[in-house]
């Protein structure tokens, strides 16, 4: 499907930039338009793929291009004040050609954390297209203020978007790596997973269109109903086969040779095993999949390696695991790829211990900050004034 992506803040901008690079590399054509919004000039200058005229610096009169310093209340205020400038960039997007908006932001900082919910509310008021969020949760080692920012932004953003897709940095943290190279790898993982998912709904010219191909309406329907979503992914390398072999095994039906039948059993088994790996492996937001409201299974790869039986079995298995009867499935033919991948969108997840933990730590951080603020004045008074009050201020 075609998206208008808006990266808010540093993480948001970098990830949208990466989506553009992915689009150019794979020809997936999911980014119809890309905009970056920030209060920090340097962050906007660091982007590589987003066009210069689609980079919007907000809050100049308040923070002079230096960012909001992880203050997400200020981030929200500045976004509200300068929403006209963001709209100016969006006015340049042919919105009739996009299927949805996707606002991407790190929820632990200031600009994206505060600005993303403001922008979501604004877009929902103006456009009929769905507005989705891709929210990045901070690592638990980032500290209390980031956790508090994320918990407050998460709560606000869920209510403003049509669906909040979540990626948890904490679950993907690599030990012993520099923060930057760690983020590079994490950002690759993000665009790979969401790229396959959103790419599935985009039929390209010259692409074989089978009946079972996922359509963007299936992605939209899986996301509609709102709430929080997570994505599972698994892939396996395969040798490239002749395209005609794929077509042959699809259409030969009962006249299949033994060789073809074995092949088809292998294909089916590979698909079902990839579905299990994707659902039971690391999700973008780790959670219990039982209780998921809706799901979508996308099988990507050369057509010769995709079959309806495998996808149907995988879909049924997902129905059992999630307890939901609203599980869609289909394929995403990628005839020049050397892998078969399974991407699973679990939409409307509710049993997410990580969110509860985040909220708990956020409340502790909030209490601590309030306590220190309350005592701050009297502590300072005690420090600066002499015990017997013998000294006098100058004025
Ligand atoms: P902002 O510019 O004020 O919105 O804040 P940042 O985007 O710099 O940081 C917000 C949060 O996003 C941080 O606390 C990190 O958890 C996360 N973050 C920052 N940069 C990246 C990145 O490149 N990739 C990912 N996945 N997360 C990032």
Automatic annotation (TrEMBL):
InterPro entries: CetZ (IPR032907), CetZ_C (IPR048737), FtsZ/CetZ (IPR045061), Tubulin/FtsZ-like_C (IPR037103), Tubulin/FtsZ_GTPase_sf (IPR036525), Tubulin_CS (IPR017975), Tubulin_FtsZ_GTPase (IPR003008)
Pfam families the UniProt entry points to: CetZ_C, Tubulin
Gene3D superfamilies according to UniProt: Tubulin/FtsZ, C-terminal domain, Tubulin/FtsZ, GTPase domain
Entry keyword annotation includes Membrane: no
Domain of life where this protein originates: Archaea
Record: residues binding GTP: 10-14, 110-112, 142, 169, 187
GO biological process: cell division; microtubule-based process; regulation of cell shape
Chief location of this protein within or outside the cell: cytoplasm
Family annotation (CDD domains): CetZ_tubulin-like
Coiled coil: 355-386
Gene Ontology terms, MF aspect: GTP binding; GTPase activity
Keyword list, A-Z: Cell cycle, Cell division, Cell shape, Coiled coil, Cytoplasm, GTP-binding, Nucleotide-binding
Residue span(s) of domain Tubulin/FtsZ GTPase: 2-206
Subcellular location: Cytoplasm
GO cellular component: cell division site; cytoplasm; microtubule
Record family assignment: Belongs to the CetZ family.
Role summary: Involved in cell shape control.
Protein name: Tubulin-like protein CetZ
Lineage per the UniProt record: Archaea, Methanobacteriati, Methanobacteriota, Stenosarchaea group, Halobacteria
This protein's encoding gene: cetZ
């Amino acid at each position: 499907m075609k998206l208008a992506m808006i990266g808010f803040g540093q993480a948001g901008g970098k990830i949208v930039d990466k989506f553009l690079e992915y689009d150019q590399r794979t020809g997936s054509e999911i980014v119809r338009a890309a905009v970056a919004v920030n209060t920090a000039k340097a962050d906007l200058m660091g982007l590589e793929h987003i066009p210069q005229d689609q980079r919007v610096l907000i809050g100049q009169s308040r923070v002079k291009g230096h960012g909001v310093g992880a203050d997400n209340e200020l981030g929200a205020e500045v976004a509200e004040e300068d929403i006209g400038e963001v709209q100016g960039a969006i006015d340049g997007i042919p919105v009739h050609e996009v299927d949805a908006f996707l606002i991407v932001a790190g929820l632990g900082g200031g600009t994206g954390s505060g600005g993303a919910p403001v922008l979501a509310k604004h877009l929902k008021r103006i456009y009929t297209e769905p507005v989705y969020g891709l929210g990045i949760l901070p690592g638990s080692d980032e500290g209390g203020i980031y956790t508090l920012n994320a918990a407050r932004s998460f709560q606000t953003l869920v209510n403003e978007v049509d669906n909040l897709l979540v990626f948890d940095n904490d679950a993907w943290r690599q030990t012993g790596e520099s923060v930057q190279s760690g983020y590079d790898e994490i950002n690759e993982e993000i665009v790979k997973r969401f790229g396959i998912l959103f790419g599935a709904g985009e039929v390209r010219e010259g692409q074989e269109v089978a009946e079972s191909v996922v359509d963007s309406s299936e992605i939209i329907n899986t996301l509609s109903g709102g709430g929080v979503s997570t994505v599972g992914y698994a892939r396996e390398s395969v040798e490239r086969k002749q395209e005609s072999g794929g077509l042959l095994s699809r259409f030969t039906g009962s006249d299949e040779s033994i060789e073809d039948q074995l092949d088809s059993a292998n294909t089916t088994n590979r698909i079902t095993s990839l579905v299990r790996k994707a659902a039971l492996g690391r999700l973008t937001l780790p959670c219990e999949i039982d209780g998921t409201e809706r799901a979508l299974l996308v099988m990507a790869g050369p057509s010769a390696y995709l079959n309806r039986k495998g996808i149907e079995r995988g879909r049924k298995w997902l129905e059992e695991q999630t307890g939901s009867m609203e599980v869609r499935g289909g394929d995403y033919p990628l005839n020049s790829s050397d892998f078969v991948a399974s991407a699973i969108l679990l939409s409307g997840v509710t049993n997410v211990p990580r969110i509860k933990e985040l909220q708990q730590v956020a409340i502790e951080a909030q209490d601590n900050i309030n306590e220190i603020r309350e005592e701050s004045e009297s502590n300072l008074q005690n420090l600066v004034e002499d015990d017997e009050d013998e000294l006098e201020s100058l004025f």
